[in-house]
Design goal:
The structure holds two protein chains of two kinds. Chain A has helices spanning 8-13, 15-49, 86-118, 124-130, 133-136, 139-150, 156-161, 171-199, 203-211, 216-244, 248-254, 256-259, 264-274, 278-303, and strands at 52-55, 58-64. By secondary structure, chain A is mainly α. The chains are: A mainly alpha, B alpha+beta. The interface between A and B is large, with 36 and 41 residues.
Amino acid sequence: MTTTVPTNKAVKQRGIEATRARQAVWLLIPTMIAIILVAGYPLYRTIFFSLFEANLTSPDQKTFLGLGNFWFTTDEGVALGFLQDPKWWGAVTNTLLFTVVSVFLETVFGMIIALVVNSAFPGRAFLRTAMLVPWAIPTVVSAQMWSYMYNDSFGLIGRGLLGGTALLANPSTSIWAMIAVDVWKTTSFMALLILAGLQSLPSDMYEAADMDGASKGRQFWQMTLPLLRPALLVALVFRSLDALRVFDIMSVMVGNVSAARLSMTAYARQALIDNQLLGMGSAVSIAIFIIIMVIVVVYVTAFRVKFD
Amino acid sequence: MKKPAMLLAVAAAAALGSQAHAVTVTLACGSVGQELQLCKEGAARWAKATGNTVKVFESPNLTNDRLGLYQQQLAAKSSDIDVYQLDVVWPGLLAQHFVDLKSKVPAAEVNANFKAIIAADTVNGKLVAMPWFTDAGVLYYRTDLLKKYGFTAAPKTWADLAMMAKKIQDGEQKTNKAFAGFVFQGKNYEGLTCDALEWVNSFGGGTIVDDAGKITIDNPKAAAALDAAASWVGTISPKGVTTYDEEPARGIFQSGNAAFMRNWPYAWALGQSADSKVKGMIGVAPLPAGPGGNPAATLGGWQLGVSMYSKNQDAAIALVRYLTGPAEQKIRAIEGSYNPTITSLYKDKDILKANPFFGSLLDVFTNAVARPSGPTKGKYNQVSQAFSTAVTDVLNKKTKGADAVKQLSTDLARIKGRGW
């Protein structure tokens, strides 16, 4: 988002533009106040509490810890900070694995689907609508649906295809089972974003390429893909951010205690809600915030994503 | 029946006397098995007798999820729910949010209950909640299958159970591929803590943290108990047992697909219902013992407490007194196999007729092992999560019992931090 800040000289020369800019500022003020109230204040409170030891049910009785919630070793050598907790690092590793694999698969499948529905064939409009169905189902519902299918005693997949294998029973297989659910659910969303990009490509360019005798494969690699890059990268950033905050699939499919080992947000929820550690939970939330920020900055600078 | 009727009248009068007009009270009930149904019916009986209205709030099935929800409501001082159903391990965690019932409920009514449960519900001299039903783990078995394979009695040790389950499972799987020898609560949640505490305690491995607050889990007997349980997964228990809570386990047993099941007493009434495939073929016994140990059953059970933030406290207290009173506990024992907390009800003929095992297992119910929620106070939940997570890793064969209890001991020291 960029705003043009008119200089004093410009004001004199272009009165209408200056009036519009002033108007824009006034129109933005209510939005800014709303953002400060609903996002800024909670963020401030989270940062504030991350420096204290406090209980969720009685936040008023708190003791200042500094960065003790992050890193603290007692005199007896007991490590109390969450950064010293192997379960936290397990959750980070699993979340990153989940994000990388699911976003990669969603992009590949999404691209294939987008290319298919972009070409003209009868029933295309119906197919475009139908492919959004998995995405339209609420995540908790699809997660529950899939966990029934994975059930080892009556599930379509667990009993029917795999003959009584309990995929969700073991953390090392359950993460893959959940990646499959996420891919099933979100590929269509990815396809939709890529399709929007595809539709903005000029068709006369392809006609010219056909005339020059370029093969379809060559057209894809040398024309479609480079031109699609901006749309594709925005889609990638969106999906990666979503995947890094994964919570509902895991919470529904394996329960909150196991989910806390698989996802950073579930770990934060466990600290904050189940264990009532307001300070520790806030500190974990800050850490998640920082991790996501770093990843976004890396993405945006490495791929030179432009959002305007 | 005279006495309960009188109590009801007294409760009703108390409610009507202090409340000039009828009010609406919201009651949070659980929904495991027939819980919700019985809860609604009991509330309706009170509402009819007093002219008040009761709204029933359906809580999540898993006790961990319920606690999370309740804590948020209580921390926000919400008056949405007047009466909460509390797990026996929660009073220490939530005491500050509940009305002290000591001065509101006559001493005779309180003292009619099991002493151990009243003690668990009393925090720093404050009676946080009134006991509603008690629970202890029991072993369910199929009498017909035991006979078919030549066994005369329920297993006395875990080794016996494994041997019997294997023999029955091997025989039954010839005709029924989905048949399992033994099902229990193996999912990583509070229920697994209950099951695993029974294994550890019956092997003589203590109670995770002792009464003085010392971490005792790192011992060879506890490790042996967890290794024994891990050997069941994939042999006499389905691999998916590590995803089961109470209801999936009951579903398998009740559809005739398991020889043995560890569960709470509520499963009895449902197993004897008309649509149950195993009606009339169920036996109930104490859980088996470990080598050289004694059988152990984890103490469970639920209480009713009145929220401090309730706007209709008098009516809410009247509702709690009615629901935890003898008349209602009797109905719940007969229809749902919920163990009464009132001692005298264990001599009631109607209750014993509906639940023949109540009498013979009275010992199990009165001597059940408490989870270490007393000594670990507000940190109990973290202790339980660390324990059930360690057990999960052993059940999934990711680690051995000895390594798991050693690591758990370190984790618990971290949770204990500067003290419980």
